[in-house]
Structure formats: structure tokens, C-alpha cells
Amino acid sequence: MLGDQPIIPAIKNDDGLKAVLEADGQIVFVLYGNVLNIGEIVRKLKESGKIVFVNVDLIEGFASKEIVVEYLKKNSEADGILSNKAAMIRAAKALGLLAIHRYFVVDSFSYENLEKQLEIAQPDFLEVLPGWPRMISWVVEKVKIPVIAGGLVCTKEDVVAALGAGATSICSTNQDVWSL
User: Rounded CA gap, 83 and 102, in Å?
Assistant: First the structure.
């Protein structure tokens, strides 16, 4: 699925939603919304033929509890979730949703802890932030699931470098990157 779309648009507001509805590509990451409008945001994307992943950590009004994933499953047509919390990833998988573990590598401790976190969460995909090429190459050597480079991937050079380092795809909120 990811190999067919090397650049994944991530939307963080209604302007991004409007732009992605007109953009090529099927996969979209939703990084905004609230408990009242997330179903409508997902519905619009699904009507446009998109595969939708919702970042449950960024939706206003949601708590960091597994019931949020069940709510999303029952009240939207989301295909999967993104989260940096292992419990949310496990809850999504138990409900038959795809799950992307967003993992922030901020220092050597977080890098060394990566395998343990993936063992606990058992995600389908891993999004590494920041998506810097050196970091991506280290992570790709360490894990056995597809890696998405996210965060601070802003130019064509960044995209090419991240993909060259082994990322299956990159994710960006920068609309200029979407059309590369």
C-alpha cells in the first residue's frame, strides 16, 4: 500500500483538507479535528476515495484511552490510526484497524528503546520523526516493518534523501511536497 504512494499528505486544518481532496494519491493522514467533526472529515476523504489514518493523539476532546479508538471505529470510516502510544496501537489492531506507531527519536535513549516499543505496540507501520536520512537509515536497519519518514521533510531533496535512506514513504503537511 505504501510502496505505491511514496509521498503521503498529512492535513492539519480545513485548508489542507480542501487541497488533499483535489490531490492525487490515496493515503491521507489526518492530524486535526475534534470529537464533533472527525467523522465528517473522514467521510469527505472516504467519498474522495482516500485511505484515511487519524492521529488519535491530536483530536481535540479525545483522551489517551483505548475507548477513543473504539469511538473512532464506530463513528467514522477511518482505515487506521496514528499514535505514539502503544496502548492505542494495540486497541486499533484488536478492532481490525491498521496502526501506525509515530515514534519521536529525540536522543540516543529513545533510539535504543525503539525495538522494545515496537514489540509492545506491534504496529503495522512505523513513522519516524524527524524524518532525517541518517535517522531513517539507522531505523530501517533495526526494524522489520515499513518505515515512514515524517517531520521536517520539506523539500524535494529531503524526500529523495529519506526514500534513498530506506523509507517506504514520507509524510508531510507541506502542500508543495505533495506534488513532487
Answer: 5
Distance, in Å, from the CA atom of 87 to the CA atom of 11, rounded to the nearest integer, reads: 24
> pLDDT digit string (tens) for 126-151?
999 999 999 999 999 999 999 999 99
As a whole number of angstroms, the distance between CA 134 and CA 39 comes to 37
Q: Which pLDDT tens digit goes with each residue over 43-101?
A: 999 999 999 999 999 999 998 899 999 999 999 999 999 999 999 999 999 999 999 99
66 neighbors 121 (Cβ within 8 angstroms): no
* Nearest alpha-carbon partner for 86 in 104, 71, 67, 100: 100
CA-CA-CA-CA torsion sign (2, 28, 122, 77): negative
Q: Which helix (H) or strand (E) holds 35?
A: none
Give dist(CA 50, CA 78) in Å, integer: 10
Nearest Cα residue to 136 out of 101, 168, 107, 109: 168
Q: What is the dihedral of CA 68, 70, 76, 80, to 10 degrees?
A: 90
**For 32, phi and psi rounded to 5 degrees?**
-155, 175
User: Which ranges of the chain would DSSP assign to H, the alpha helix?
Assistant: 14-22, 38-47, 67-75, 86-94, 108-112, 114-121, 133-142, 156-164, 175-178
For residue 157, the SS3 value is: helix
